[in-house]
Amino acid sequence: MGVTMGSIYKRGPIYWIKYYRNGKPCRETSKSKKERDARRLLKLREGEIAQGKVPSVVYYRIRFDELAEDFLTEYRINERKSLQRAQISAAHLKDSFSGLRATEITTPRIQSYIEARIENRAARATANRELAALKRIFSLGARQTPPKVDKIPYIPMLKENNTRKGFFEHGDFLAIRNLLPDYLEGFVTFAYKVGWRLSEITTLTWSQVDLNQGIVRLEVGETKNREGRTVYLDEELRSVFVEQAERRKKSGSITPFVFTNRQGNDRIRHFRTSWASACRAAGFFRMDE
Question: d(Cα 101, Cα 247) in Å, to the nearest integer?
Fold first, then answer.
């Protein structure tokens, strides 16, 4: 990308700079009465453009409210069933971050938000849903073209006492789940809560489910150790299976599998790819990546 030489000029006592990006002129104040400060700023901007970067001044103009609206728009466009929950989380976040520039939302500010929510007696799971939404808000901003977010702040999550032990804290799991396609949300929720092998869940059929009694069974011989296994569905898991049943009915599918692909006509086959992409988008990487 070619760079057109910029220029420096004054408006009153303050020096301004003018440079070009994609052939269009951009003007910016140096906020200084010293010409050397303006030259330094102009050199910085031209360097960013020469490297194909969005000038960092663009990020200073983006406010949280714009990112939050983009977040909710994405939920509405994709007709996510969790839209109402996302709206509630966004409303709480706006109470603290509305009007702030995205660059002003730093980890210390987020920690202050967490402390305030705890003081207001918000449940830890509720606060974690809000923090997961905040991660999603920033991730979407960073993935825009051109990006609206340069750096995603570190967003700490709260420990929850009612979650199963595993590689991810529950809040981290929620952040990743929010980045997955809708058809995988129930699948990963069941996988996270029961801890079955991936192959056992992808091949689970409706003949193994009794929604009236709230039971899911793996019969003797269907597991790796040849032993039977039974799961009693809690309220969240029951709702997962009800949604899967409704999705199956709506699609008119005759597939026997509980958790189906995006089209609803076969079992899930490429989960690991989607999971890895969501992990990267949420800021979680394997050590060898």
Answer: 40
155's tokens? 């967003």
Side-chain-side CA neighbours of 149 within 13 Å: the count stands at: 26
pLDDT digits (tens, 9 = 90+) for 3-18: 456 889 899 999 988 8
pLDDT in tens, 41-64: 888 878 777 776 665 556 678 899
Q: How far is CA 284 from the centre of its chain?
A: 11
Model confidence pTM above 0.70: no
The CATH number of 61-179 is 1.10.150
Break the chain into its structural domains and give their ranges.
Answer: 7-53, 61-179, 182-269
Cβ–Cβ < 8 Å for 239, 228? no
Q: How many helices (H) and strands (E) does the chain have?
A: 11, 6
Note every long-range contact of 197-200, with CB atoms under 8 Å and residues 24 or more positions apart, other chains counting.
Answer: 197/224, 198/271, 198/272
